[in-house]
Amino acid sequence: MFYQSLHTSKQSIHQHLNRLLLEREESNYLSRLISEIRSDHPTLSCRAMYYKIRPEKLGRDAFEQLCKELGFLVDKRFNGPRTTNSSGVIRFDNLLINTTLTSINQAWSSDITYYEVQGHYYYITFVLDCYSRRILGHQVSRRLTTEETTLPALQKAVSTRQGVIPPNIIFHSDGGGQYYDKGFLKFTTSYEFRNSMCEYAYENGKAERLNGTIKNNYLIYYTINNFNQLQEMVDRAVTLYNRDRPHKALNYQTPIKYENSIVIL
């Protein structure tokens, strides 16, 4: 009876710890979403955000406590992205500062944005080459987990380059948890990326502008009523962006045409 009680006690402790880890993981993901929603809706209350997002692991009170910890409980004008300061957060140095790019595959940048369809929030992750502005990988997901956002987007980006990329590519992002997740870092390490993070949104400007371009210049003009249609329309927008949209910074060439014009030594 004693051993059975001890086993039950240990099992309960493990279950409790696993539940805490899941709640903490969701909190890290939610911090980014809350920042984006408040950026678009500066006066939206935390309670209204809760009922709009309806997180899986956090109840209403815990969600509002998270908003308080992130500085969102008092409804005021949003002045920039907040990041979680909880233990376990990893922050890499910003390697793009004072870095001059001369060709493709020297620096890639990534960001996650959200898109609302019929009252549901979905997430779009992009990976682009900072030199050519080409979208190398993208992923549309229902959830903000690493396995559904940054990891598949980066895997697609590597696949776009035929799986053969030089070592030491700077991989630049914000400080979101999806960019320092163990599985994600294992993948970047395997391809010898140099992880880089910004502190402010403007330090990841190319990826931030890409989010706005895809959403405001393409998606809002399409008929999108469900998740599958969103996937299809994001695919369409990415193809048009890469193959048909001239860029002033590329001498009014498309990203793919510009890449094809580069003589790679």
Blueprint (SSEs and pairs):
Elements: H1 2-40, H2 46-53, H3 60-70, E1 107-117, E2 120-129, E3 135-141, H4 150-160, E4 170-173, H5 182-190, E5 194-197, H6 205-217, H7 227-243, H8 255-261
Parallel strand pairs: 1-4, 4-5
Antiparallel strand pairs: 1-2, 2-3
Helix pairs in contact: 2-3
Descriptive notes:
The chain is α/β, with parallel strands linked by helices and 265 residues long. It has two domains: 69 residues, no CATH class; 155 residues, Nucleotidyltransferase, domain 5 (2-Layer Sandwich), CATH 3.30.420. It is built from eight helices and five strands, in the order αααβββαβαβααα. Strands 3-2-1-4-5 form a five-stranded mixed β-sheet, with helices on both faces. Helix 2 packs across helix 3. The radius of gyration is 20 Å and the shape is globular.
Quick summary of this structure?
The chain has 8 helices and 5 strands. It is an alpha/beta fold.
Count of alpha and pi helical runs = 8
Distance between the termini: 73 Å
Residue share in β-strands: 5-15%
Oligomer: single chain
Q: How many DSSP E strands?
A: 5
Order of helices and strands: HHHEEEHEHEHHH
Structural class: alpha/beta
Poorly predicted runs:
75-87
Question: C-alpha Rg, in Å?
Answer: 20 Å
Estimated helix fraction:
40-55%
CATH architecture of the largest domain: 2-Layer Sandwich
Largest sheet: 5 strands, mixed
